[in-house]
Design a protein that fits this description.
single chain, mainly alpha, three-stranded mixed beta sheet, 7 helices, flat
Length: 198
C-alpha cells in the first residue's frame, strides 16, 4: 500500500499537476526567508520568468526589491536541484495589491453645521453613529469624525486638533555651536518655561 507522501509526490511529478509543484517550491522559497520578512508576505505567484511577491505593507516593496530579491535569486541559482521549476526565474519583484476603491455615490458634501443639525435631532448614540457612517460611505463628508463624535450634540471647533501636554520644564542645556540654532533653542526653552510657569 502506498503512503500518502508517495502519492502526493507522484501527483506533483505529473505534468497536469505542475502548478502544485510550483506552489510547493514557492512556499519553500518563502520559508527560507527570516520570520520578519515572511510576516509581511501575503502570497506569491509566478508569471512567465518573474516571481511576483505580494506584500501586506506598500512601504516595504522598495526594500524587498533592493535587498531581499537578490538574495532569493541567489538561493534559486545555488540550489537548482531543490527548485527545478523556479530555477529559470530571471527576476523577483515585490508589489502591493491594491483593491479598487468603490465609486462614490454622491458628490454633494455636507458641512459641519448641516451634520450637526441632523445629529441634534437624533437622540440615540447608535443612530447618530450609523448616520455618520452612512454619509462617510456615500462620500458626503470628507472628514473622519472621532469615534465618539456622534455622542455630543455640539460640534467642538477644535476637535481636529490634538493637544499634547509639555513634559519638559525648560531646564536643559543647549550644546549647539551654531549661533542660529542656539537662538532657536533658546526661544523654545523660553516658551516652555513660560508655559510651565502658568
Amino acid at each position: 500500500m502506498k503512503s500518502s507522501h508517495l502519492i502526493i509526490s507522484q501527483l506533483k511529478s505529473a505534468h497536469s499537476w505542475s502548478k502544485l509543484k510550483e506552489f510547493d517550491e514557492i512556499s519553500k522559497l518563502i520559508n527560507s526567508l527570516t520570520l520578519e520578512a515572511r510576516k509581511y508576505i501575503a502570497f506569491a505567484h509566478k508569471k512567465e520568468q518573474i516571481l511576483l511577491v505580494a506584500l501586506k505593507n506598500p512601504n516595504l516593496c522598495a526594500e524587498f526589491n533592493t535587498y531581499t530579491a537578490p538574495i532569493l535569486l541567489n538561493t534559486l541559482s545555488s540550489f537548482k536541484e531543490h527548485f527545478p521549476t523556479l530555477s529559470s526565474l530571471k527576476q523577483i519583484k515585490a508589489y502591493f495589491p491594491q483593491t479598487p476603491s468603490p465609486p462614490k455615490r454622491s458628490t454633494s458634501l455636507l458641512s459641519k453645521e448641516e451634520l450637526d443639525a441632523q445629529l441634534k435631532q437624533i437622540k440615540s448614540y447608535r443612530q447618530r453613529r450609523a448616520l455618520i457612517q452612512k454619509y462617510q460611505e456615500q462620500g458626503c463628508i470628507r472628514f473622519l469624525p472621532p469615534r465618539h463624535f456622534a455622542r455630543y450634540n455640539e460640534i467642538i471647533e477644535t476637535f481636529f486638533i490634538q493637544a499634547y501636554q509639555e513634559r519638559s520644564d525648560g531646564n536643559f542645556q543647549i550644546q549647539s555651536t551654531n549661533p542660529k540654532l542656539t537662538s532657536i533653542f533658546e526661544s523654545i526653552q523660553h516658551i516652555i518655561q513660560q508655559s510651565h510657569e502658568s
